[in-house]
């Protein structure tokens, strides 16, 4: 099931390339010892070293920890780590950057992280590889404030020089049949979520779009469905929300389709997204592209990485979402869709793991409850809070142990599905105590004690001689009558499966 947009002349496919920036977590900046914390509560221009301020004669010193972070991320996206890479100066004059150039890694050779891939759930529900061309280290710029004063602008350089890792997806232009690229707004979102989760699981970045520690440039082109050529793309810059990214892709694709269907061509423009109405408009055309005059930064040596360093970092890696998914599918027998939902965030998969806690037979039940119920009740389900111990008087939330117990009770026939749902709703409504406590309190616990059920069955059989005769003569449909009578005698608390079994044995 490929995503297509219906046009006047036929179906169109969408081709998407994402350049994602994540802010690397580190105490210090990429080339200076100044703090990399630029959050808005910190006074402007208090985290700026002489290097960041570009004072004459200052020299950048590469932060090894940030390089380790890049290598770790590279391993997390199955990428080649480049043994020798370089830093270049990208020249531009803008008040957010005192140096007058940004130090980045050049585009014409592999940066620290070379080719790799991540796996997402494709639109057809099966796993899909998205190829990544590269991920490079570069400096972030400062922040300008234009709205604080009628005639003045302010510059805050706390963020200037903070480390960014830019991850660029790959389009195999020489082989347009290779469809390992993002091909719909939903796939774009799933790709970004996957990048985010990998970055978070590894501690490489908070990768939080709302806080600005993750942003993306969105390249979009369209082509007639089934075509084996790529067409010209446009690039929409600096997107900071999944929703806007999806809207921008859709709008941009439709805009391009309309141009083609009216006989026009799409120029390779750089676009801006207009939040107000969800449209895009041209910011500059590629012809006016700035000439950044890249050249190797003479202040910095080649970045040389040896095998030992890579292996040392590899050994510190936690389980990544793709591995967790494979474990859920292969070891716990979950469906691909369920495995994908349960690994959307590390918090979710940790919650699930805590509930299953090694008991494979629980896995499907826990997965079902989480996906079909808990996900819809965010307010009663603080996924992070579940793991930690609760304050005794804190409001009731559902913990992994609660769901585990509920699932076990159903498996053991202590309660039936309907009762489980009632207990679940009571927990959502704030009822305290474990599911067993709740079942007891509301008299829901089923009688599984076979002795008690047997005597109820005996009583029913003794009191229904004509039906027993008919049943034994072949009218097996009467079983329902007996079950009903036993249930009534036990006030609905007998376990139906056990009742059935005992009845069949005694009547048979
Ligand atoms: P630049 O923005 O520096 O020109 P690239 O040429 O490397 O960078 O491309 C940037 C992004 O655009 C990459 O993710 C790439 O896969 C994507 N891209 C390139 N060509 C197309 C196309 N025809 N349609 C959609 N995306 C494309
Ligand atoms: Mg670009």
What does this structure look like?
The protein folds into three domains: 23-214 and 288-309, no CATH class; 321-441, no CATH class; 450-507, Arc Repressor Mutant, subunit A. 34% of the residues lie in helices and 18% in strands. The chain is built from 15 helices and 16 strands. The protein has helices spanning 64-76, 185-202, 242-261, 307-314, 321-330, 336-342, 346-356, 363-372, 400-411, 417-428, 435-441, 450-463, 465-472, 479-489, 496-507; strands spanning 4-6, 11-23, 84-85, 88-91, 101-104, 116-121, 127-139, 143-145, 154-156, 163-169, 214-224, 234-239, 269-274, 279-285, 295-296, 303-304. The strands form four sheets. Strands 1, 2, 6, 7, 10, 11, 12, 13 and 14 form a nine-stranded mixed sheet that branches. It has a three-stranded antiparallel sheet with strand order 5-4-15, with no helix packed on it. Strands 3-16 form a two-stranded antiparallel ribbon. The longest helix has 20 residues, at 242-261. 39% of the residues are buried. Magnesium ion binds next to loops.
Which key features would you list for this structure?
508 residues, alpha+beta, Arc Repressor Mutant, subunit A, 3 domains, 9-stranded mixed beta sheet, 3-stranded antiparallel beta sheet, 15 helices, binds adenosine-5'-diphosphate, binds magnesium ion
Quickly give the structural class: alpha+beta
Question: Structurally, how many domains make up the residues?
Answer: 3
Query: How many runs of DSSP E, i.e. beta strands?
Result: 16
Instruction: Estimate the global geometry from the Cα principal axes.
Output: elongated
- Computed Rg: 30 Å
Mean pLDDT: 92
Number of helices: 15
Name the poorly predicted regions. Answer: none
Terminal CA distance: 53 Å
List bound small molecules: adenosine-5'-diphosphate, magnesium ion
Largest sheet: 9 strands, mixed
How big a fraction of the residues is strand? Answer: 15-25%
Helix content: 25-40%
């Amino acid at each position: 099931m490929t995503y297509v947009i219906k046009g006047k002349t036929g179906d169109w496919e969408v081709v998407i390339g994402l350049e994602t920036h994540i802010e690397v977590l580190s105490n210090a900046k990429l080339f200076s010892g100044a703090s990399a914390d630029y959050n808005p509560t910190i006074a402007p221009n208090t985290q700026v070293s002489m290097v960041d301020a570009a004072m004459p004669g200052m020299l950048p010193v590469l932060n090894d920890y940030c390089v380790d972070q890049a290598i770790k991320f590279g391993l997390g996206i199955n990428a080649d780590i480049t043994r020798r890479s370089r830093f270049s100066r990208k020249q531009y004059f803008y008040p957010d950057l005192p140096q007058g150039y940004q130090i980045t890694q050049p585009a014409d050779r592999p940066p620290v992280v070379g080719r790799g891939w991540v796996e997402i759930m494709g639109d057809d529900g099966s796993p899909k590889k998205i190829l990544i061309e590269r991920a490079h280290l570069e400096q972030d710029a400062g922040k300008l404030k234009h709205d604080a004063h009628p005639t003045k602008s302010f510059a805050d350089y706390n963020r200037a020089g903070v480390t960014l890792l830019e991850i660029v997806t790959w389009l195999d232009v020489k082989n347009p049949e290779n469809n390992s690229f993002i091909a719909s707004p939903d796939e774009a979102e799933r790709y970004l979520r996957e990048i985010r989760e990998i970055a978070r699981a590894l501690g490489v970045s908070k990768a939080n779009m709302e806080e600005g520690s993750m942003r993306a440039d969105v390249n979009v082109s369209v082509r007639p469905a089934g075509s084996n050529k790529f067409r010209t793309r446009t690039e929409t810059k600096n997107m900071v929300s999944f929703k806007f990214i999806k809207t921008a892709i859709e709008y941009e694709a439709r805009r391009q389709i309309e141009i083609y269907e009216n006989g026009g061509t799409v120029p390779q423009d750089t676009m801006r997204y207009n939040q107000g109405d969800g449209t895009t408009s041209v910011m500059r055309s590629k012809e006016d592209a700035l000439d950044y005059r890249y050249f190797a930064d003479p202040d910095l040596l080649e970045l040389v990485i040896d095998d030992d360093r890579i292996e040392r970092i590899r050994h510190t890696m936690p389980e990544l979402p793709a591995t967790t998914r494979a474990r859920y599918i292969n070891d716990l027998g979950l469906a691909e869709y369920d495995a994908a939902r349960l690994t959307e965030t590390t918090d979710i998969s940790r919650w699930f793991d805590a509930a299953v806690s090694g008991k494979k037979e629980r896995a499907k039940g826990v997965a079902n409850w989480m996906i079909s119920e808990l996900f819809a009740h965010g307010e009663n389900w603080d996924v992070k809070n579940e793991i930690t111990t609760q304050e005794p008087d804190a409001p009731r939330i559902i913990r992994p142990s609660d769901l585990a117990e509920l699932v076990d009770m159903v498996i053991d026939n202590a309660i039936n599905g309907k009762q489980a749902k009632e207990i679940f709703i009571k927990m959502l409504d704030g009822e305290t105590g474990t599911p067993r406590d709740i079942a007891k309190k509301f008299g829901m616990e089923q009688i599984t004690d076979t002795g008690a059920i047997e005597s109820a069955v005996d009583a029913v059989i003794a009191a229904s001689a004509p039906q027993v005769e008919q049943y034994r003569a072949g009218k097996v449909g009467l079983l329902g009558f007996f079950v009903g009578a036993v249930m009534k005698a036990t006030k609905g608390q007998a376990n139906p499966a056990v009742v059935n079994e005992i009845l069949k044995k005694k009547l048979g």
